[in-house]
Amino acid sequence: MADDFLIFRPDDVDLARSPLRRGIAEPTYVLGAFNPGMARLPNGNLLLMVRIAEALAQPVVDGHVRAIRWTPGGYVLDRYPLAGVDMTDPRQFALKGHAHRMLALTSLSWLLPVELTPDGERIVAVHYDKAIEPAAPYQDYGVEDARISRIADRWYMTTCSVSAERHCTTLHVSDNGIDYWLEGIVLDHQNKDMILFEGLVGDRFMALTRPLGEVYFAYPEDSPYVGGPAINFAASPDALHWKPLEAPGIRARKGSTSAMKIGGGTQPVLTDDGWLTIYHGVERRETVGIYRSFWALLDRDDPTRILRLEDDAPLIEAAPALTADIAHQMYLPTPVVFSTGLADGGDHYLVASGEADLACRMTRLRKDRFR
C-alpha cells in the first residue's frame, strides 16, 4: 500500500461533459485537476471535490489573448490585445496601463465531485451531474479550491469565487456530502483560504481565514515574525455571519521556509491533543514560489492558543516522481504541493493535496507523526 500516489489527473476528466460546452465550442484542455476538498460520505466512501481549471487550446488568436467568462446565458470569450498584457505567469495575465493591478485568468475553474473507495485508493464514480459551476455574477471567472468540513449532520464547503465584481469566499451546504446548494458570499474581497473547523467550538462555528491586502506593516526588528499574508481566526453563530477574532493567528516566522506567505490548507480536525490542521507555506522563488505543507495543533477549547507549530521541516513537499509520467503537462516553474483535505483512516490520516497545480495527490501519514 503506497503512502503517496496520484489519484486523479487531467486526462481523467471527460471534457465532453464539461459545463463549458454551453457556449464554448472551441477546443479546450484541462490545465489542472487539483486542490481537492475531501470529505467522508455516509456510505463510508471518500469524496474529492476537484478543481478543474479548463483552458482554451488556442488562447491567442489574431493578436488577442482570450479569457473564458460565465454569463447567465452561457459561457463567452473576452478578447484583450496581446500588446496590452503581461503573460509571465502561466495561470493568469496582467492588463497593462491600469491604476491598479488588473488580472484575467488563462482558465476558468469548476468543481467536479470524484467518489473514492474508503481507503482513497480507487475511483468509484465521477459525478459530472453534480458538478459545481459558476451560478452568479460574482463567480463569472470561476469557482476554486473547495474545502469541506462535516459539522454534525451537514457538510459545509467553502470556495473562492472570482469575478470582476469581487474576489470572495462563498459557502455551499449539503445534507448528504455530495449534493450542494449555494448559500452565497460569506466573506468579501480576497479572503482566499477560509476553512471551517470540523466541529463546533463551544456553541460557535469557527474558521481559519487568510485576508489579502495591498500593503502590510512591519513587525519590530526583534520580533520573531515576518509581515505578510497569514492565518487569522473568525467565529460565527450560523456559518453565514462571521466576526474576526482579535487574537493573532498563525504568522510566518523569520528563518522558516514559509516566510513569504502562509495560508490554510486542510480543515482543522479534533484529536485527543487539540485541533490539528495542515497549512501551506511559500518560499519566494521565481514567479510562483515553492509551496510546502506544515502543521499546527490548536487548543480544543480556545483554538487561538497555538499549542504546537511545526514550520521548520515540511510535513509534505512536492514529489516530482509522482508526476514523472505527466511531466509533459507541467506548466509551473517551481515545486508546488497544496494540501486541501484531511480524513481519518484509523491509525493514519489521509491527506488530499494538489500536486504541481496539475493533479490530485493522496498521502498517508501515521497519527503518531503528530505527537
UniProtKB/TrEMBL annotation:
Q: Keywords in UniProt for this one?
A: Glycosidase, Glycosyltransferase, Hydrolase, Transferase
Give yes or no: UniProt keyword Transferase.
yes
Give any Pfam family that matches: Glyco_hydro_130
Annotated GO molecular function terms are: glycosyltransferase activity; hydrolase activity, acting on glycosyl bonds
Out of the domains of life, which is the source?
Bacteria
PANTHER family recorded for this chain?
Answer: GLYCOSIDASE (PTHR34106)
The entry assigns this protein to a family as follows: Belongs to the glycosyl hydrolase 130 family.
- This chain's protein is named Glycosidase
Species of origin reads Sphingomonas carotinifaciens
